[in-house]
Specification:
- By secondary structure, the protein is α+β, with helices and mostly antiparallel strands.
- Helices cover 39% and strands 17% of the residues.
- It contains 7 helices and 4 strands.
- A 4-stranded antiparallel sheet has the order 1-2-4-3, sandwiched between helices.
- Helix 2 packs across helix 5.
- The chain is globular.
- The termini are far apart.
């Protein structure tokens, strides 16, 4: 069976155009994420986001990224921090599949974004304590990843290997 063109076309750019996302765009993406399967249908993920045009909120989230990711994300249309609940709401026991569930949700979000012509770049390079402090993440939740969102129209000369070196340096590799 042939892989869907929508999936084949997925790409994680490091550069985005000036075109801005809207709140409606983000809510559509989060609705798609919310349709993902999760253990006990608890949907343990939460998304904290800021649009570029909301300068103060964007700056707060931007400061949650490792230095290497801060450099190339200054012009993205939106930034998202993905957070998961450590425990099940139904009984308080440890949710050992929370990261898997988040992955399914972000997978849905990624496919929806691709269908809408929106590009995204997922990042593990965050500073969890900055997320907790800057975003008032409550006890029992943990920040895991970030997502840069925007529109992409092709290469403009950024050297991906230079960016990758910065990111790996920040991740201690």
């Amino acid at each position: 069976m042939e892989v869907l063109d929508l999936i084949k076309g997925r790409f994680s750019p490091y550069e985005f155009t000036d075109k801005q996302l809207t709140e409606k765009d983000l809510l559509t993406l989060f609705e798609a994420a919310g349709k993902a399967a999760s253990a006990f249908n608890e949907q343990p993920w939460r998304f904290i986001y800021a649009l570029k045009q909301d300068e103060e909120e964007f700056k707060i989230i931007h400061e949650c990224l490792v230095e290497g990711n801060r450099g190339w994300t200054t012009g993205v249309s939106a930034l998202v921090i993905a957070v998961v609940s450590k425990n099940y709401a139904k009984n308080g026991s440890k949710n050992t599949v929370r990261k898997h569930d988040l992955g399914l949700a972000v997978g849905n979000l990624s496919v929806q974004a691709q269908a809408m012509g929106i590009s995204l770049h997922q990042m593990a390079g965050i500073v969890p304590q900055n997320c907790i402090d800057n975003l008032n993440i409550p006890e029992g939740f943990e920040p895991l990843t970030a997502i840069a969102l925007g529109y992409y129209e092709g290469e403009s000369g950024v050297k991906e290997n230079q960016l990758m070196k910065l990111l790996l340096k920040d991740l201690g590799k």
